[in-house]
Structures are given as C-alpha cells and as structure tokens.
Write a structure and sequence with these properties.
Number of strands: 7
CATH superfamily: Molybdopterin biosynthesis MoaE subunit
CATH architecture: Alpha-Beta Complex
CATH class: Alpha Beta
Shape: elongated
Largest sheet: 7 strands, mixed
Number of helices: 3
CATH topology: Aldehyde Oxidoreductase, domain 3
Helix content: 25-40%
Structural class: alpha+beta
C-alpha cells in the first residue's frame, strides 16, 4: 500500500484515499467488510466549556512506530486483512476530522473488535498531544508534551 499508518499533516490525506488503498490490498477478496472510526473535534469539553478549535502535535517517529506496531499486532488476528491508523496533526476547527482507523476483515465481529482495540491502544500508546482553545479565550494542553 502507498498509504501507511502514521502521522500526517492536516489536509494531506483523506478517508476516501485510505479506503481506495485498502481496496487495492492483494487479499481484499477475503474481506467481507471494511469498518472505520473517524475521530472529530468535539465542540464542548467534558466540563461543558465551548471549544473553538484544537491543536494536535505528535512526537512523529515514536508515534508512527506505535501506530504501526498496533497495526502489525491487529493483523495477526484471524480474519483481519488490513489495518490503517492515520492521525492528523495541526489546527482543527470543531467538527473536523483528526484521526482515521480503517480495518478490512473477513467478518464484522473480528473487524469491530479490532477497531475498538485499535482506537483504545492508539490513545494510550502514541505520543500525541491536544491543546484545546476555548471560546472564552482560555487554552491549555490536555497532556503536556514529553520532555526530551
């Protein structure tokens, strides 16, 4: 595949491109489904404050290594044909796409389970940070970037 799991600048890749690449996979004839998760910017914080935009940053090489490791692990599950995790970085307005997880599998049960696992793992394992900008003018990092 030309599109690999990894970190991409906002605007350089689309969900449609990922789907098109997965459909070219040499084992796609074994697939019975393609499932996906698209993470978008929520317009409100967990405490109810209105969000105007967010900024996503990544420690690129370790983040890509983590994403690719997750995909490699999930491809070992019986019935999983392909897994792609693409996380975008940059500034995003409310409602814009930030992350795509796309899985081709033989059966929906395995595919949905792998999709859930992929989302839960990238959130814990990939060094990515989000800065929220509130309508009130306040802004803050959800998690501070790692100090090197």
């Amino acid at each position: 595949m030309n599109i690999q799991s990894g970190i991409y600048e906002k605007g350089t890749i689309t969900l449609e491109q990922i789907y098109a690449e997965i459909r070219k996979h040499p084992q796609i004839s074994k697939a019975g489904d393609i499932v996906s998760f698209t993470g978008i910017v929520r317009g409100v914080t967990s405490s109810g404050d209105a969000v105007s935009k967010i900024k996503i940053e990544a420690y690129k090489e370790p983040a890509e290594k983590a994403l690719r490791s997750i995909c490699d692990d999930l491809r070992k599950i019986n019935g999983i044909i392909e897994v792609v995790i693409v996380h975008l970085v940059g500034e995003f307005n409310v409602g814009e796409d930030m992350v795509y997880v796309v899985i081709a599998g033989a059966h929906r049960e395995e595919s949905f389970a792998a999709l859930t696992q992929a989302v839960n793992r990238y959130k814990k394992e990939a060094p990515l940070w989000k800065k929220e900008f509130l309508v009130s003018g306040k802004s803050y990092w959800i998690e501070e970037p790692h100090k090197s």
